[in-house]
Structure formats: structure tokens, C-alpha cells
Amino acid sequence: MGCIAVLDTTNKVTFDTVPLLMVLWFRYLFQALATTGFVLSSQGTNRLQTQQPYLQMLRGLLLFACSFLGFKSLEHIAVAEFTAIAMLTPLLVTVLARFLLNESVSGLRWLLILGGLLGALVIVRPGGGIPTHATFYPLSMVLTYASFQILTSHMAKTEHPLTMHLYTGWTGTLLASLMVLGWWTTDLSAMDWAKLCLVGFSGTLGHYLLILAYARAPASFITPYLYSSIAFATLLGWLIFDHVPDAGACAGIALIAVCGMASAYLGQKTAHKTQSNLSLTASVDEDLL
């Protein structure tokens, strides 16, 4: 999450001198080349094979749209406030899982979801420092990213994480290559290229570390740690931009973080209970056999 905060902060700095679409293009190209090099050197061509090519492209399209909306958000919104709104995603994933995957959601978790949405409304409130038209970008990004997460959960049953990471990178690179043509510029300084490399490196490393985390622990254990990104983003926003969220934004950020972590904790307890019931059922079935 520290890497993701560095990515967002560097993006916001880089937009001053480099067109947004060129930053987006370089971010995906760096990920695609780095992931391909790692996969081919360590796994060979096995990870190039996929059972769901169309879903791989859809997943890449969703993440590209999410990245574009996130980049547009950072043009208008401070890093801390943007990160807090982005943390609505786990709450929205819970809602989508209820209706798309038929997962049960308790009344308390519904209340926490409403609390998180209230926190977002406090942050984007009129007069809160965020232009009204700019609120479309982060809220649309949350919906897109939640859809991406649901699709990822579905595909993870048959697809290897590295395969998904690989196809996501190249899908984004292809789309960005088509869009960047009208915004391409060669008038970049050495510092601009250094910032672009930091964007590519921090984004690629951050997402790869998340893949490693999810490969080693259940999602319910990982989710609470995602909220540490708010602290990283607030710290970097203060150090780089001398920006400290106002009292209203701080209240909204805190409400999103508390509701999100509480919802993750309840989800963790539910997962434990379900696992215990499955183990007990399996034990009973074994005794009967």
C-alpha cells in the first residue's frame, strides 16, 4: 500500500509536465514489460495460456478504465481524499457480492456500508474543496474497480494470478497506445522520465506485492491492511504538497476507514465460521463413512 501511495503521489506531480495519457501509457507499458520478463524467465510460456481470453480482456479493460478515472481524479483531488474514496471499493464489493454472487450480508454490514458512503459524501460535500464536477471521477472509479474485483474473484478459480497480471498489463498497454497518439510529446526532461519510471516501478511492484499477499493469506485477512494506504497518502500529501485535509474531510476519511475495517473484520468472522462449519460437516461425513 506504500507503493500504491507513492504511485498516486508521483502521478499527481508528473501531471504538471507530462500529459495524463502519456503517464498512463508508460505505467502500463512498464508493467507489461516487467511482468512478461519475469514470467518468461521464471515460468516459461506456461503462464501465457488462459482458459478465459475474453474475460481476461474484459478484466484488463475494467482496470484500464479504473486507472484512467483514478488519474483524472488526481488532477482535481488531493491524494489523501482520493485514497479514502477509493477505499469504498471493499464495501461496494460486498454489495455486488450479495447480488451477483449471492453471498449473505448481515444487517450490521449493511449499516457499515451506509456509513462508508456517508463518509464519502462528507468528503465530496459542496464547499469541501473538491469541484462538484470532479466527484464523478472517483465515484465512477470505485464502481469500476469493484466490478474488477468481482470478476477477479470469479476468474481466480481457474486462472493463475501471474497470468491475469500479464494479460491486464498488455490489455492496458494496447488501449493506452491507441489513446496516447494525440497526446504524445518528446519535450520531456530527464526528471520527467525519472518520474515516469517511478510511476511504472511503484505501480508494478505494488500490484505484484498484493498478488503475493493474496496468494499467502485469505482476502478477509488482507483487506484491513488496505486501509493503511490512507495513512501513507496523507503523509505523502503533507510532505510533497503541504496539504492537510480539513476537519470535514478528516471526519469523512475516518468514517470510511472505520466502517471499512469493521466490515472486513465481520467478513473475517463469517469466513471463519463458514470454514469451521465445513470442517465439522466433513468430519461428520468421514465418521459416517
Q: SSE layout and pairings?
A:
Blueprint: H1 2-14, H2 20-43, H3 53-76, H4 79-86, H5 89-100, H6 107-123, H7 136-155, H8 161-179, H9 190-216, H10 219-226, H11 228-241, H12 247-288
Description:
The protein has helices at 2-14, 20-43, 53-76, 79-86, 89-100, 107-123, 136-155, 161-179, 190-216, 219-226, 228-241, 247-288. With 289 residues, it is mostly helical. The longest helix has 42 residues, at 247-288.
Q: Per DSSP, what share of the residues sits in E-state strands of 2 or more residues? A: under 5%
How many domains is the backbone divided into? 1
Query: How many beta-strand segments?
Result: 0
| Percent helix range | over 70%
Query: Count of helices?
Result: 12
Low-confidence stretches: 278-289
User: What is the CA-CA span between the terminal residues?
Assistant: 47 Å
Question: Helix- and strand-based class?
Answer: mainly alpha
- Apparent shape: globular
Cα Rg: 20 Å
Kindly report the average pLDDT value: 85
- Biggest sheet statistics: none
The succession of helices and strands, N to C, reads HHHHHHHHHHHH
Any descriptors?
289 residues; mainly alpha; 12 helices; 79% helix; 0% strand; disordered C terminus
Task: Summarize the entry for a quick read.
The chain has helices at residues 2-14, 20-43, 53-76, 79-86, 89-100, 107-123, 136-155, 161-179, 190-216, 219-226, 228-241, 247-288.
